[in-house]
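Final paragraph of the annual report: two paired records, presented back to back.
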Amino acid sequence: MTEIKHILETEGGLSQVSVERAISEIRAGRPVALKSGRSHVLVIGVEALDSRLAAVLAPLAKRSAKLVLPAPRLRRLGLDRSKPGAIALPHLDLGRIATLSLEVGARIDAPVAALGKLDVAALELARVALVLPAIVVIPVSANSIEGQGLLRVEAKFIEAYRAVGLRDLNIVGRAPVPLEGAPDTEFVIFRGGEGLRDQVAVIVGKPDFAEPVTVRLHSACLTGDLFGSLKCDCGDQLRHTARHMAETGGGVLLYLDQEGRGNGLSNKMRAYRLQAQGFDTYDADEVLGFDHDQRGFDFAALMLKQLGISRVQVMTNNPLKIAALEAAGLEVVSDKRIMGRQTDQNIRYLASKRDRAGHFIEMDDGHALAGVKD
């Protein structure tokens, strides 16, 4: 057993395991203890905080709890801020916490303090756990939580979690998977790089990796890719890409588990509800506390490198993806547009991406199917 422990410690495994357990605890609605030096805090996601749990935590809080919120949510509360902050919670008032965290028309009701190291780690834990980025943080002593069965995690492990995961990105399986319109296709499965999720490289045809390879980075969209939602153009883009690659010498489509621009499926549905109330896609995310795009594409670039690809022709409308591949050391020799249907239901969404995020999208009053464009 000593040898196993040594392997884990030398490869960063124990730190990753502790964070992965913390992700599971937070997603399950259980508090986690974070520590840095002699400082300890209990953290719990706001969406999991109910009256029973609040009653259990209240004796530990002792009027010292705080609500940690990201900058976008604080801006929605009426502050001009570019950094996250903390609001004092003299009592674990569930109504007040819910109002400050989620209510559309809420306004700040107390001073906002800068975050400490443990507060920052708590917010990052929420991000990688794909829960609402609103966290109750309770400073505690080590003795007060002894014997409570709480998971304890070093803040520095959470800070390093993504970087260590990138280092451990590996191919864990591959197999031919014929697709409609692209029958000569292989799926290559990667593990690591982005939390506990697997990522897929779909190799269409027989591209020559010694030459510039046609590539698309496609973030998973359950509603569009699988169910054909009319609210977005994702499913069309996915299928157009595979067909285009099959018809033009092949390519690699990276199918990335980054639902809802990296916010997760539950938060995507919260954003959809806000969109139904009149918010555009970016304002809806900001109400929930998210920036315009939470995704990272560094692990996508590493997937391409592991496949032996160094030069790419990118199929995208998103300038951030082009910049991310170039920043990761890949040579982007060209880029092409990939268009989907424009419908009554997605026209505002597409216009918002064009006008607010700089996507290369041509609007068509006829709502035509555009396909691939140079």
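The closing record of the year follows.
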Amino acid sequence: MPQFIVIRFVDFHAAAERRVTPGLAGRALVIGGARDARGDVVAVSLEARSLGVQVGMPLREAASRAPHAVFLPGRLDRALDFACEVDEAVRRLAPHVAWTTIDEAALECEARGADALVDAVTAACAAPFGLTTAIGIAGSQIAARAAARVVGQRGVLHVLPGYERRFLSRLDVAWLDGVSPALLARMRARELDTFGDLAALSTAELLHTIGREGPVLARLAAGDDHRRVAGAARPRRLCRTVAFDRLVADATAPMAALEAQIETLTQRARQFGCGARSVSVRVEYEDASTGQHTTGLRAPTTDPAPLVVALRAIAARLQLDTRPWRSATVSIGALTAAPQQLSLFAPHPGVRPVVRLRTRAGFAALAALPYLQRRRA
């Protein structure tokens, strides 16, 4: 029987900002805009949450509750790059991974290996990325996702087999997947406030009260969830972010560091059985402006040499050697199955090898042989 693991990265956006700016570590972060802006809080760190700042709160109220917090506008591209790095770390441990949101992932494994997988994922995300995780484990996705939300800020909650319906019965129906605000208001009007209230209705009452999706939601509310984790077989792209301050502290040349990242990314791609067809670099300059450029290749490759050539061309175009910059993100994308390298000369059960004409390169190599060798082949 498979076990489902849902991982919520509680301080995901704060960790993404600290990944680029290590000086923000340990400080209260409020993401959403300036402290005197009229918008709302999008994300907060655990330090700011302990001061009473919540997501959705007006920024001015957050500034009054946490006057010494650092207010950041937040950048989606930075969060997406950070998500790619976390996805790579998780995929190296779990064969089936599906991301429901940018900060929540669902995993599937055998029942015996659930606890070991949770320990491995927690260790892989805590130290390298500074992430705090809230994890739920159950025999169905709906119960595992609810358990991860019940945990709160950090910890692990394991719903034992056979207790899914009892665990879900008192939870709010707003936690159900696929419930729109209009449908939620309609259920509130009918006093359907919990999973248990919804699961207790008959099919006729569900169709009359909710509509066609009523029986499906009722099965989910009862913990009857047969959905499997349907994630991509391979990551969409692999990326690394390099901070210029760290390069200066380590006395490392910028281009040498970026080329080393290409070597690392191609090695990771080979481990996933993928080949890259594009190289992309996004740079953040000292004046807070950004630049980005992508170069595509004709065919997927696992050889870092053509990727390094493309990287140098992009670096010259973005003026990385002449214009001051804060950070640069190198990524390889369009990952597809690695091309099979067919051998031209294959071993034969007989005495001598036989030339296998399988590719255009095979014909070219055969034509380059002397006449007698071609005749024997």
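The chain has 16 helices and 15 strands. This concludes the annual technical report; the extension proposal builds directly on these records.
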